[in-house]
Amino acid sequence: PCLLPVLLPRLILIGMALSLAGWLYWLGKQPAGWQRGKTLIAAHWPEIACGAAALILYLFTLAPGVLAADAGEYQLVAAEWGVAHPPGYALYTLLAGGFVHLIPLASAAWKVNALSAILSALGIALLVYTVRQETGSPAAGIISGGLLMVSASFWMSATQASVRPLTALFALL
Length: 173
Known about the structure:
By secondary structure, the chain is mostly helical. The protein has helices at residues 8-27, 40-43, 45-60, 69-80, 90-102, 108-135, 138-150, 152-158, 164-172. It starts with 7 loop residues before the first helix and ends with a helix.
């Protein structure tokens, strides 16, 4: 298959995620309170694996451009530093606007959609972490994260401009 310019932002984001994972591996030697001899990657492999899988899934199924209804409105207000319909979603608008204006690649609509994918992947990783801490079972964390990752409504919100991934992330926090 040919490499289209619209795929480049996806590949760049995947490359950035892999670079971040490598940096975290190098950084995480043995902070106090962690299991002795384990790096950050080794200690949190279920969270990182599920979060990375979610990010890859969501980026490859991401809506490529401008959308209708609320999603299109969120894309527009982020690009124009506007205000969405009440209640306005001020934090989401500021995050999306910063994402649109600070990242030079791709269209504004694609970047706002990608923000939802990133927030959703972080939410999946946080769910895996929480379930693993509460149950002591990496399998329980992976199963819960995997089920949420592919649930229809969560997946749909993760691939288009939406305030729901940010709300889900805060709920998981």
